[in-house]
Amino acid sequence: MDTSPTALFSNYEQDFQQIIASIRDKVEGNSKTEGVEQRKTALRRVEMELDEADEMVSQMEIEVQGMPQSIKPQYQTRIRSAKTELSRFKKLSKDLHAQLSRSDLLGGVGGRPIGPSSADDPYGTGDRTRLLAGTSLLEDGTRRLQESQRIALETEEQGADILSNLRRQREQIENSRDTLYTADASIDRASGTLKKMIRRMYKQRFITGAIIVVLVLVILIIVYEKVFA
């Protein structure tokens, strides 16, 4: 079985697309025409599938970190596309939840309408207003949480890129250091060779000088014997 980063990425991406297709069927298909309870059940399943899709995206991001730098950008683009699609369905799921919540509030408990015309609950309008305000606050908190999550993921991706750049720079520094060590060793060898050559040169000069002195002495002896013999 192929366990390369690109193969694993493709597997996770395929699982993600299957989950998204299931979510799309639930939020955009026939579930809109079902009853309230059936829609609630479908939305609960959508929430679980959104969590699964989010996990698939996280796994895809992990696999991208192990890919060669030459192919990494195209896979990062596919991750961004998956995140955009996932965010769209998260927003759609949240909107459907809000619609069901409003339907429950407007429909009252046990099918009794909530409003000033209800004799059993004269404060129904105030309660409904407070509940709607609470729902709005909850939606606002959810939006902020999703935004924080998006920023955290972007920061994580940037941090991973920085770490990758630092690793490459460290490798370059180590290669440069090895090159300097090699050059230093070569210089040491060259210096040793030059010293040997200098010693040999002085030795040859000394030998040459000695030979010249001997020759001069021999010539002087011969001349002396020729002149005074």
Q: CATH superfamily name?
A: t-snare proteins
Shape: rod-shaped
Q: What quaternary form is this?
A: single chain
Q: What is the percent of helical residues?
A: over 70%
Which stretches are low in confidence, meaning pLDDT under 50 for 5 or more residues running?
108-124
Q: Please, how many domains?
A: 1
Compute the number of helices: 4
Distance between the termini: 109 Å
- The gyration radius over C-alpha positions equals 43 Å
Helix-strand category: mainly alpha
Give the second-level CATH assignment, the architecture. Answer: Up-down Bundle
Mean pLDDT rating: 80
Determine the strand fraction and express it as a percent band: under 5%
What's the CATH C level?
Mainly Alpha
Instruction: Please provide the count of β strands.
Output: 0
CATH fold-level label: Methane Monooxygenase Hydroxylase, Chain G, domain 1
> Which series of helices and strands comes N to C?
HHHH
Biggest sheet record: none
Subcellular location: Membrane
GO molecular function: SNAP receptor activity; SNARE binding
Protein name: Vesicle transport v-snare protein vti1
Membrane topology: Single-pass type IV membrane protein
Short description:
The protein is mainly α. The protein has helices spanning 5-28, 36-65, 72-107, 124-228. It has a single domain (5-181), classed as Up-down Bundle (Methane Monooxygenase Hydroxylase, Chain G, domain 1).
Description:
Belongs to the VTI1 family. The chain crosses the membrane at residues 206-224. It is a single-pass type IV membrane protein. 85% of the residues lie in helices and 0% in strands. Mean pLDDT is 80; it is low at 108-124. It is mostly helical and 229 residues long.
